């Protein structure tokens, strides 16, 4: 799935509980954390091809993220559980719909760093630009905009409170106050 889809899915998970701004941001960002290994593209196409879906797409990184949130979050157990859910939904989304244009599927070495014996892959994986990914993204975008209009905050709060309020004000001017 596209990183935008992962971000919106993480935001949906973050909004499944009554979390404060900081904890919502952490849960949301956990949904895109596995794609940190995609930054390897800066080191070159070969590095990216070799290590994307390897370095951060595994249980080791998930456990580190969950532990960090457990230690530093305000609603420790709720936020840590949602971080783990958001992270694993990313992996599930990649398993479903991240096949490359050449048909290559990046297997996910889920048990790293403990073992590389188990590689997750699914032969029915659809392409990154396939209609199911587009439909999921559109649905999540609609939900995100609805919640921003209704609840008064959007994923933009991660970047800037001013930008967040600009989004909410624009939605409420367009669709009225809830």
Secondary-structure map:
Blueprint: H1 3-14, H2 21-30, H3 45-51, H4 59-72, H5 76-97, H6 131-151, H7 161-175
Helix pairs in contact: 1-2, 1-5, 1-6, 2-5, 4-5
What do these coordinates show?
- The protein is mostly helical and 178 residues long.
- It has seven helices and no strands.
- It has helices at 3-14, 21-30, 45-51, 59-72, 76-97, 131-151, 161-175.
Oligomeric state, counting identical vs distinct chains: single chain
Average pLDDT across residues? Answer: 93
Low-confidence stretches: none
The DSSP helix count reads 7
- In terms of DSSP E residues, the strand content is under 5%
Distance between the termini: 32 Å
Largest sheet: none
Number of strands: 0
Structural class: mainly alpha
Number of domains: 1
Shape: globular
Residue share in helices? 55-70%
The SSE order reads HHHHHHH
Overall radius of gyration: 17 Å
């Amino acid at each position: 799935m596209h990183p935008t889809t992962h971000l919106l899915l993480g935001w949906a998970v973050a909004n499944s509980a009554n979390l404060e701004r900081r904890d919502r941001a952490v849960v949301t960002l956990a949904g895109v954390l596995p794609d940190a290994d995609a930054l390897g593209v800066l080191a070159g196409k070969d590095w990216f091809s070799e290590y994307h879906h390897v370095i951060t797409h595994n249980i080791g990184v998930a456990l580190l993220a969950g532990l960090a949130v457990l230690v530093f979050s305000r609603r420790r157990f709720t936020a840590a559980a949602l971080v783990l859910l958001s992270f694993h939904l990313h992996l599930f989304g990649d398993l479903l719909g991240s096949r490359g244009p050449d048909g290559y599927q990046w297997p996910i070495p889920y048990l790293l760093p403990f073992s590389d014996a188990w590689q997750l892959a699914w032969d029915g994986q659809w392409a990154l630009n396939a209609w199911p990914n587009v439909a999921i993204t559109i649905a999540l975008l609609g939900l995100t905009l609805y919640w921003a209009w209704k609840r008064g905050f959007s994923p933009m709060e991660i970047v800037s409170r001013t930008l967040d309020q600009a989004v909410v004000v624009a939605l409420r001017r367009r669709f009225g106050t809830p």
